[in-house]
Input
Amino acid sequence: MSRTTVGILSGLAAAGIWGAMYVVSKVVLDIIPPFALITTRLLLGGLTLYAVIRLRGPMRISSRDFMRVFAVGAVGYGVSLGLQFIGTKMSTAANGALVTSATPAFVLLFAYRLLGERISATRLFALLLATIGVVAVIDPRNAALNASLFWGNLALLGAALTWALYSVLIRLVTRDLDVLVVSLVAFLGGLPVSVPAGALELSTIGAGEITAWVVLGVLFLGIICTALAMYLWNRAFALVDAGRASLTFFAQPVVGTLLGWLFLHESITPLFLLGGLLIALGLVLSSR
Output
């Protein structure tokens, strides 16, 4: 397969896994506070990637490159995920899905500025189609835009901006470095934010009863949704133009809605079917 095909499939697989993450997270977050969970995910994900890297041989990265990737990880796994949790807590899940759907548009702008990627009319049209599709899937009638949610919505906007910046920076640093090593070091970059926040949560809120199902859920979130999915996302941006790879992000709400319908008995509307079709058309148009 071509680099473009592998990149698009990697991005779709990552977004699909994150869509599945919605169902598991909904259960696990009732037991483990958000930042404590993300710390656990980053540690599990990091240990998984480290084991894979060691099986191939010694890990090679210079101290200068380590600090560069560590800083990129701080943007993605520290600042962006932190803002996402804060925004979701202060706003609503529907608002979170709607605001973060702007991520691919921000990727397009950052890619133009930092990578010199051309913003073609075809790519803009593909982005427009996919964006309309994801808005239809999410159904903006569920969103709430009142003054009491302002700071939460602002944090969600910051999460979308910083995740877009992280994704573009990943393409920049993977030009000369192995994607597995980059993914591992980036995980470490998120820990200076998540560890103290998680420790504060556990000391003030505490955690619920840790059952075997919760342990399995945490392992799924750490190994599959973090180690595997983040590696696939980073690989997508290493292989494909950032503007094109970013459109695979829109597969996440589609998969999440389907699994929510299958396991949580949530409803699927005609708007969802229309939105899924528009997202698919946008991806096909962008990949040509």
